[in-house]
Design a protein that fits this description.
Number of strands: 5
Strand order of the largest sheet: 1-2-5-4-3
Order of helices and strands: HHHHHEEHEHHHEEH
Largest sheet: 5 strands, antiparallel
Structural class: alpha+beta
Radius of gyration: 19 Å
Oligomer: single chain
C-alpha cells in the first residue's frame, strides 16, 4: 500500500491579508473569507439524515460561483460543455484544481499506468460495459476531481467528485425502493468503527442551517422502510462503497459519500458522486485494526 503524507491543517489568515479573487477559490481564500459553517459531525449527520439537500455551500461563495458560472456559460455554452471539453480529465489525475488532494502525489505516480484519451471528447462506452457504475468500471470512464466550489466543510475535509460516463444508480433496483432512491439518493460511510450519527440527532445540528431557513418541517425525505427495504437500499450503494474504500483506504481515511437524487443534481446530464474525506491522525491510523 502506498504511503500517504499526513495532511496539514492550514490556519486562517486575517481576511485583509488574503485578497479576494474571481473564479474558483484557493484554500487560503476559503479559510479567510468562507470559513466552514459545519463541523465534521454535522456534515455526517446531514448526509445520514435522509435529505441530502441539507448540504450547503457558503452563501457568499455561492454568489461568487453564480457569477463565475455565468461567464462559463457565455464562453462554453453551458456548464456541461465546460466539464466535457475542459474540466473533466477522463482516466487522468486532476492537475487543474486549486485545492489539490493529498492523494494527488499518489495519482501522479500512477499516472503513467492509467489509460487516457489525448483529446477532450467523451470517452466511448464499450458495448460490453456494465449498464451502471461498479467498483471495477474502467478508469478511462471515470474522472475523479476535487470540487472547485466545495460545500462549507472544515478545512481538513477534502471534497471530491467522482464523474463517470455511465449511470451511477443501478438500473435494476427492486421495485420496492425505486421511488425512495429517486427521491433520497444513495449514501454511505467508510473508515469508522462507530456508526454514523443517527437521523434522530438531526435537531441538534439544525441551528447550523439557520441562515438557510431549514427546519424539520421542510425536510424532503422518505420515512424509514422495513428492515428488508433498508437492506436493499444499502445493497444498491455497495459498488460505490467498494470503490470509495479502494481509493480512500479505510485505515487512513474516514469518508462520507453520496449520490444525489435527480431533484438535487446540479448537472443532471452527467452522473457523479460526492465524497467528503478526512485524513486520519497518526494515532488513529496506528489504532486501526489490522486485517
Amino acid at each position: 500500500m502506498m504511503a500517504i503524507e499526513s495532511i496539514t491543517v492550514l490556519q486562517a489568515s486575517p481576511p485583509h491579508d488574503v485578497p479576494l479573487g474571481e473564479g474558483p477559490p484557493t484554500r487560503e481564500e476559503l479559510l479567510a473569507h468562507y470559513p466552514a459553517k459545519f463541523t465534521w459531525i454535522q456534515m455526517k449527520t446531514f448526509v445520514n439524515s435522509g435529505d441530502l439537500g441539507l448540504l450547503k455551500r457558503d452563501k457568499k461563495l455561492q454568489i461568487r460561483y453564480d457569477t463565475w458560472a455565468k461567464g462559463i456559460r457565455e464562453q462554453y455554452g453551458s456548464i456541461v460543455n465546460y466539464l466535457r471539453s475542459y474540466r473533466l480529465q477522463w482516466g487522468k489525475p486532476d492537475r487543474i484544481s486549486l485545492l489539490p488532494s493529498i492523494l494527488s502525489t499518489a495519482d501522479e505516480r500512477l499516472g503513467g499506468a492509467i489509460a487516457a484519451s489525448d483529446n477532450s471528447d467523451l470517452p466511448p462506452v464499450p458495448a460490453d460495459a456494465q449498464p451502471y457504475f461498479t467498483a471495477d468500471t474502467p478508469p478511462e470512464l471515470i474522472s475523479i476531481i476535487m470540487n472547485d466550489w466545495p460545500y462549507s466543510v472544515p478545512s481538513e475535509i477534502e471534497h471530491s467528485l467522482i464523474w463517470t460516463r455511465i449511470p451511477m444508480i443501478p438500473t435494476n433496483l427492486p421495485p420496492s425502493i425505486v421511488s425512495r432512491v429517486a427521491q433520497d439518493g444513495l449514501w454511505g460511510f467508510t473508515g469508522s468503527l462507530t456508526p454514523p450519527p443517527s437521523p434522530s440527532t438531526l435537531p441538534d445540528s439544525l441551528p447550523a442551517l439557520a441562515e438557510w431557513g431549514i427546519t424539520m418541517d421542510k425536510l424532503v425525505r422518505s420515512p424509514r422502510g422495513t428492515g428488508e427495504e433498508e437492506e436493499l437500499v444499502k445493497k444498491a450503494g455497495i459498488e460505490m462503497e467498494t470503490f470509495v474504500k479502494r481509493r480512500w483506504i479505510e485505515r487512513e481515511w474516514e469518508t462520507a459519500w453520496f449520490i444525489n437524487p435527480p431533484r438535487l443534481q446540479s448537472v443532471p446530464d452527467m452522473a457523479h458522486a460526492h465524497v467528503f474525506a478526512r485524513h486520519k491522525s497518526p494515532d488513529e491510523i496506528a489504532a486501526w485494526p489490522h486485517s
